[in-house]
Amino acid sequence: MLGERPEVEAFAAPFYERLLAEGRRQIGFRVTPRKLNKMGVCHGGVLALFADIQGGPLRRALNLAVGSPTIDLSMDFVASAPRGSWVQSQPQLVRQTGGPLFFESKLHADGELCARVSGIYRLKPNGHGSSRRISSSA
């Protein structure tokens, strides 16, 4: 399960993360009743929140010990995520420069594409004075 979340994200929790081959990471959540809109499918705001938290797993996959505020997030809703479905994604690095980190991700509900996401995070030191890689021996 992803670590402790800010209160604003708590209503949509829990989110889960698993490590895949070659250090890639996959995150997901179950569409429970409290995540539904009036039409009985996952609320678009929950999907957008899930899209926005892709930075944490991506930073861990890249071994970066930095914060990553969102600069831009673009999302195309392709299909609904029904009640009870498992929504998952695997954020992909598009480009990493000295400051911004560009990513893309596809959200799938029970294997069916439900949203396409692209975004930019600003890599920001976590009070360490500079960005640093996390040691693999830690």
Query: How large is the count of helical segments?
Result: 3
Class from secondary-structure proportions: mainly beta
Largest sheet: 7 strands, antiparallel
* Content of β-strand: 35-45%
Which whole number gives the mean pLDDT? 84
Short synopsis of the structure:
This protein is mainly β and 138 residues long.
List keywords for this structure.
138 residues; mainly beta; 7-stranded antiparallel sheet; 3 helices; 9 strands; globular; disordered C terminus
Question: How does this model look, in words?
Answer:
The structure is a single chain. The protein has 3 helices and 9 strands. The protein has 138 residues and is mainly beta. Strands 1, 2, 4, 5, 6, 7 and 8 form a 7-stranded antiparallel β-sheet that branches. Strands 3-9 form a two-stranded antiparallel sheet. The longest helix has 9 residues, at 44-52.
Secondary-structure map:
Blueprint lengths: L6 H4 L5 E4 L5 E6 L13 H9 L2 H7 L4 E2 L2 E8 L8 E4 L2 E5 L3 E10 L2 E11 L1 E2 L13
Antiparallel strand pairs: 1-2, 2-5, 3-9, 4-8, 5-7, 6-7, 7-8
